[in-house]
Description:
The chain is mainly α. About 75% of the residues lie in helices and about 0% in strands. It folds into 2 domains: about 1-100, no CATH class; about 120-215, no CATH class. Keywords: Cytoplasm, Protein transport, Transport. It comes from Triatoma infestans.
Amino acid sequence: LNTIETLISVMEDQPEIVASIQPTVLQVIGHIFTQGVMEFYEEALSLVYDLTTKSISHDMWKVFELIYQVFEKDGYDYFTDMMPALHNYVVIDTPAFLSNQNHVLAMYNMCKVILTVDSGDDPECHAAKLLEVIILQCKGHIDQCIPSFVELVLQRLTREVKTSELRAMCLQVVIAALYYNPQLWIETMDKIQLSIPPTESISAHFIKQWLHDADCS
Length: 217
């Protein structure tokens, strides 16, 4: 697998050669993911990244579906390894990413799992970053997703945040949503119901939470 990755890297400026070997490489990747050969997940995900840096073929979108299935089956252990490829799927061919609402839903579902369970700061930072990238890259096309994205990170901020990096990443999602559409952002913030005392405003609650996090750091 490392040899294949090296070959793709060397040939990255010759797309016709990469395209000619892609079907063979995809057979290997498909076998690893469908058979659950976890010891090769990291290498396979690196290959997916290499094959999506310039363009994303129809078959590579099928691989995206396999990656989502791997996530659902094997949990969040490999999310950090998935992140470079997931980033490519959003930014390299954004129109294709948006052409199927299941693409956006799959990304959101993965981020939701990471930010809801105790997955650790590193995966959580990656999940928040992915949400931010989607918002900024898809400006004007995912209005229906913004409330869910914002509520997800705000809910995460109601729980203990152990690092300033994670807190900053979550806040950047909220800021990205404000940039995306200020009016939609205001409407979203007005509607969000968080598990905080009804006598306390959202802003007051987060100030208290941030002070608590600072004391714990």
